[in-house]
Design a protein that fits this description.
The complex is a heterodimer. Chain A is of the alpha/beta class. In chain A, 60% of the residues lie in helices and 11% in strands. Chain A has a 6-stranded mixed beta sheet, with helices on both faces. In chain A, strands 2-1-4-5 form a 4-stranded antiparallel beta sheet, with helices on one face. In chain A, helix 2 (25-57) packs parallel to helix 4 (123-164). The two termini of chain B are 60 Å apart. The longest helix of chain B is centred in the middle third of the chain and has 54 residues, at 218-271. Chain B is built from 19 helices and 12 strands. The radius of gyration of chain B is 35 Å and the shape is elongated. The chains are: A alpha/beta, B alpha/beta.
């Protein structure tokens, strides 16, 4: 996390929302215009119905038929407009959402460079930025469209009603204003109840998640009855929050819809005299009745859009943490995003740095200290081409931190020291230490639900090189035994593979581009000793330069040099 | 798959315990619909009186009546919503608990095939869909039907021809909506699928972000993202156009209806068979229909979701465990002997030779109180062997006896009390330290919990109080501490047989020393099976069993095998030498 004070204070929500809306200006403006048009038709339709009832009252039946036909034609036009409008707006909506998501994701996945953002903690929480925060921003823009359309209707309808009976029109505004006030004031409470309900729901699903992940533990400990009674009290608590949330929400909605009926009641009260005298006829009543449902739209939306503006502000604030420099403007970076139905989506070939053959890697005084106290301090060593360096030491001694600091993957730590490659300092290490210069295998490698081949190549790679990587990682026999070979889908997070297979597929991923330097975090926990031995032999035979964490003698014995870390400091530095 | 009728029968069975609440809700909904029909009748009276000529005072009192009805309708709507939500949650919470209990009783193999995320979705997500359906859709549909029936009744009293015409109108509108519904929900499901894929993909890529960044795979991942976003665009537009058709149906029927009411009104008023007030009543009723119709359309996705959810819930309840709890015999007290009598195991012919889950012709006797190390390559069947002893799986051939009693004859509760497992990955719960040691069992006292923690060397943790919270996944504990906590769970239960499955694989050598001491104390006087990659873990066991491709290839005392230069164990020791500095 970047300290708050150093974050740039960016432009306001309106400015940012404008940028989002102008990602695809044509869809946006077309959708907006169609919505405004859509809302003007009911003014005409209601007026025509009113004329119809007026004609009915005065006994002019042939004109009644004409007015009915005209009202029907108006409605057909209205629906045609909304058909086009809704389809256009759906496209604008998906474009805007994809635009925000693309900016967040690109910042998360960039290997160094100006676009690289702050990595997020848990992916489960991060997904809420991509789903809920993005939704909040587009809902604000959507609300603005609704308000402007509602305003168009209200102004036009106000003229018509005012010309019929200004007193009745004025009294109609009372319950409608009430709706705006109620929506606005209760919105906070709705949100609070919703948050409590979400928390209760999260407690239930969190507990269920714990129980289902630990189903075997629960089973073998005979703990099912006790676990279920705990679940019982959690679901009970959630029932209370859910009821409260729903009743308030439905209550506000019932009030908004009922306000139209109450408004009609007021109109009847105020106009009772005029009706008795015949000045306010059934035609006028029909116009009022026809407009009522539409009139409650604007106050409802005004109350809501104010709340949404606040939410959109919070959403931008949250999303800011994911993008480069914590600068909110990077959430709305202009980019081309061909997600439309007939747009071409050429497969982007990965832009990789040019290969710089490794002669000598020098690490000078590398320090990565976390505020919590962990990390490494002042580590220096050199790695020569084709050598095998083993990094060892107890858990928590900073082995992974050292590797990640070297590769420029550390975030939120105080960094010092330099890394030199063939006598030249590497400045943007995250951008430089990617294949073909370096490849990294984390301690717990993550795979994605694609084919084996896609997981290894992450782009286009000739088949021969893929097979060579499988051989090097000692996983080719396993893959060839699978029904679809390298096209086998490995399931979410690679769960269809065994732990050892996942580790070796990830190893193949690290070597497929024949990187100048292979960096492997601890493999031992997932591989048996014989497989580990085979792997080291393969990498040596391929002439690769390797920096690896291991505790095992099979690695230590083969090493050209051994770095032993203890509490973040180099303890032993033994070279052969 | 359940058939449609059996599905409804199963749904009815789930609702039966709360049937009186549901009946009460039905009455409330009917009352609310009736009230909303009364308002337009008052307006009709006002219009007719105004036509006939009347005093303002009389109209004013009618206007007050209308206002009162409008307010009452709103109030009762809220009451309906409150009662419907309470009832729906009451019923579905019972279903949740029933499902959770059912799932926990299913075989180990079931849990291997289904990810926790999927099971949460079954037990919680699906039931929430059913709950939404019961609490929101059912009252609305019942309300809409009650309203239509009431309208037809009112119109029938006024003029039977109006009622007949309105009936035809309602039937046609309903038919159009029902026909359009199928396509719309199909498209909505596609859209949900596309979004699930999009978010699933994003989440996976974020989890793998470091792997992707360090492999320079950002461009590749972004290309996938654009493809998936394009799929959401495609399906969103299709869903929108399908729903627009439905919307045309509703809006069109209201538009046609209001024009027809005017035309029919003109004809009937002209012939003198109805008053202008009645013509206006028809117009109001047409407008009144719009709201419930739109509501029902908006809830279509909920219906679809609930439909799929219901099927999955019932299908899940139909899965039966194969490992049954029918035993009545008890082995003698004290450490349990383990006897494998020609035991073979495979997963219904799926396993090939060399499959990690297959065991062949295992005959092995382990005396009570002995500790035995199980050694073998990944996939040699070590873990399957331990699952047999825990009766998480059942031998396909041969018999396994504990303390001389066939394992299937031991009551499950007793087996669970006497046989304990310490796994490689300790599963912790977000809850207090106490919850994590007792696994939510209230019968152990705090003192017993503290004592168990002290015995395994977690005295420092106990000193801070056992009612402190641990984060989800055991945040705040190191891997070694989590293992020690798992030992404390076992201490508390005082079992006669302990299975350690790679219990120390994830900890570093220093922590391992601490764990080993606690383990040595725990297994003293009990029978123990110790599975390990690291041979150093097996320093203190009495015997060694080596498995290879599902067969026992070596079994002897540790000392004899270590000294025998020709033994496999001896060769493995030479290969490993892992603690050599």
């Amino acid at each position: 996390m970047i300290p708050r004070s150093t974050m740039k204070s960016g432009p306001g929500v309106w400015r940012l929302a404008w940028r989002v809306s102008q990602h695809r200006p044509r869809e946006f403006w077309a959708g907006w215009a169609l919505f405004i048009l859509f809302f003007t038709f009911p003014v005409l339709g209601g007026w025509l119905l009113g004329r119809g009832f007026h004609a009915l009252e005065s006994g002019d039946y042939s004109r009644v038929y004409w007015y009915a036909a005209a009202a029907l034609a108006t409605d057909v036009l209205r629906m045609t407009t909304i058909h086009a409008g809704a389809l256009t707006w759906t496209r604008a909506w998906v474009h805007m959402q994809s635009f925000l998501r693309a900016n967040l994701l690109a910042a998360q996945l960039a290997s160094g460079g100006p676009e690289a953002g702050q990595p997020v903690g848990s992916s489960g929480e991060a997904i809420t930025h991509f789903r809920d925060d993005v939704e909040d921003v587009t809902m604000f823009i959507d609300g603005l469209i609704d308000v402007s359309a509602g305003l168009a209707f209200t102004v036009l309808a106000g003229f018509v009603l005012g010309s019929i009976d200004s007193g009745a029109a004025a009294v109609l505004m009372v319950p409608l204003a009430g709706v705006a006030v109620a929506t606005r004031t209760l919105d906070h409470r709705i949100k609070r109840y919703r948050a409590t309900d979400r928390a209760a729901a999260a407690a239930v699903s969190g507990f269920l998640g714990d129980v289902m992940s630990a189903a075997t533990t629960v089973k073998v400990n005979g703990a099912a009855p006790a676990t279920l009674s705990r679940l019982g009290s959690l679901v009970d608590a959630r029932r209370h929050t859910a009821v409260r949330d729903r009743v308030l929400d439905d209550g506000v909605q019932a009030f908004a819809q009922g306000a139209a009926d109450v408004g009609l009641g007021f109109v009847l009260l105020v106009s009772a005299g005029a009706m008795a005298s015949g000045a306010f006829d059934v035609g006028n009543l029909a116009v009022f009745t026809a407009y009522l449902g539409w009139l409650s739209f604007l106050p409802r939306m005004v109350g809501r859009v104010m709340a949404r503006r606040k939410q959109a502000g919070v959403a931008f604030e949250r999303m800011r943490g994911l993008v480069a420099d914590g600068d909110v403007r990077n959430t709305v970076r202009t980019r081309s995003l061909p997600v439309g139905r007939r747009e071409l989506r050429p497969r982007i070939t990965a832009t990789r740095p040019t290969r710089v053959p490794l002669q000598l890697l020098e690490v000078r005084g590398l320090t990565a200290q976390y505020a919590t106290g962990g990390g490494v301090r002042d580590v220096s060593f050199t790695i020569a081409r084709g050598s095998f360096t083993v990094l060892t030491g107890p858990i928590g001694s900073g082995k992974s931190t050292l590797l990640r600091a070297l590769l420029g993957l550390t975030h939120g730590a105080e960094l010092e020291g330099q890394v030199w490659w063939n006598g030249v300092e590497v400045v943007d290490r995250a951008a430089f230490f990617v294949p073909p210069n370096a490849a990294y295998l984390p301690q717990v490698p993550q795979l994605i639900s694609d084919s084996v081949a896609d997981n290894i190549t992450l782009g286009e790679v000739p088949l021969a090189e893929l097979l060579r990587a499988l051989d090097l990682a000692a996983v080719r026999a396993d893959i060839e035994e699978m029904p679809d070979g390298t096209a086998t889908l490995i399931g979410p997070r690679g769960l269809r593979l065994s732990g050892g297979q996942r580790q070796r597929v990830a190893t193949a991923r690290a070597v497929v581009h024949s990187p100048e330097l292979v960096v492997l975090d601890d493999l031992s926990s997932a591989l048996d000793v014989e497989t580990e031995l085979e792997l080291w032999a393969n990498l040596a035979a391929a002439g690769m330069t390797v920096l690896a964490v291991s505790h095992r003698a099979v690695a230590l014995e083969r090493a050209d040099q051994v770095l032993r870390l203890d509490a973040g400091r180099p303890a032993v530095h033994a070279s052969r | 798959m359940a058939t449609a009728t059996s599905r409804w029968r199963a749904l009815a069975a789930l609702l039966r315990p709360d049937s009186r609440r549901w009946a009460g809700l039905g009455l409330l909904v009917a009352l609310a619909s009736g009230l909303s029909l009364a308002g337009p009748l008052v307006v009709r009276r006002i219009v007719d009186l105004a036509q006939a000529g009347t005093t303002a005072a009389q109209l004013t009192s009618l206007a007050f009546l209308f206002l009162g009805l409008a307010v009452a309708t709103q109030l009762i709507t809220v009451v309906v919503s409150w009662f419907a939500t309470i009832t729906a949650w009451h019923t579905t919470n019972q279903i949740r608990l029933q499902l959770a209990s059912h799932v926990l009783g299913l075989d180990h193999e079931f849990h291997r095939r289904h990810t926790p995320g999927e099971l949460i979705q079954r037990v919680d997500g699906d039931v929430t869909s059913v709950s939404d359906f019961l609490g929101r859709v059912v009252p609305r549909v019942v309300g809409a039907v009650a309203m239509v029936v009431g309208m037809l009744g009112v119109l029938a009293v006024v003029d039977w021809r109006l009622a007949a015409g309105a009936l035809a109108y309602v039937v046609i509108t309903g038919a159009v909506i029902v026909r359009g519904r199928h396509r719309a929900v199909g498209e909505a499901t596609d859209e949900m699928g596309a979004y699930a894929q999009l978010y699933g993909g994003i989440e996976e890529r974020l989890t793998a972000a470091e792997d992707l960044r360090s492999n320079g795979a950002g461009a590749h991942a972004m290309w996938r993202f654009v493809e998936e976003s394009a799929a959401t665009m495609e399906t969103s537009v299709r869903r929108e156009s399908a729903f627009l058709r439905l919307w045309w149906a509703v809006q069109g029927s209201v538009a046609v209806g209001s024009s027809i009411s005017l035309v029919v009104g003109a004809a009937l008023v002209g012939s003198g068979s109805i008053t202008i007030g009645t013509a206006f009543l028809m117009f109001q009723y047409v407008l009144l229909l719009e709201r419930p119709l739109e509501d029902v359309i908006q809830q279509l996705e909920t219906v679809q979701k609930a439909n799929g959810a219901m099927v999955r819930v019932i299908d899940l309840l139909a899965i039966r465990p194969t490992i049954l709890d029918n035993g009545t015999a008890s082995p003698d007290r004290g450490p349990l002997t383990i006897e494998f009598d020609d035991v073979s195991f495979d997963y219904g012919g799926e396993g090939r030779e060399g499959d990690e889950r297959v065991l062949h012709d295992i005959s092995l006797t382990i005396a009570g109180g002995r500790s035995v190390g199980i050694v073998g390559r990944t996939g040699s069947g070590k873990t399957t062997l331990s699952r047999l002893v825990l009766r998480l799986v059942e031998a396909t051939h041969g018999e396994l006896r504990l303390g001389g009693v066939a394992i299937a004859d031991i009551p499950m509760a007793e087996l669970r009390r006497r046989v304990a497992l310490i796994p490689q990955e300790v599963e912790l719960f977000s809850g207090t330290i106490r919850d994590n040691v007792t696994l939510f069992d209230a019968t152990s006292s705090d003192e017993q919990v503290t004592d168990a923690l002290r015995r395994v060397g977690l005295g420092a943790l106990a000193d801070g109080g056992v009612h402190r919270q641990l984060g989800s996944g055991g945040a705040g504990l190191s891997a070694g501490e989590a293992q020690l906590l798992a030992l404390a769970r076992v201490w508390l239960r005082n079992p006669d047989l302990v299975v350690l499955d790679e219990a120390t694989a994830r900890v570093d050598p220093a922590t391992e020393v601490r764990l080993e001491a606690a383990i040595a104390e725990l297994i003293d006087g009990r029978t123990a099976l110790v599975i390990a990659h690291r041979l150093s873990t097996l320093r203190h066991v009495d015997e060694i069993v080596i498995l290879d491709r599902g067969r026992v290839v070596e079994h002897g005392t540790r000392d004899a095998l270590t000294d025998d230069g020709a033994s496999r164990f001896h060769r493995l020791l030479e290969l490993a030498l892992e603690d050599a500095p």
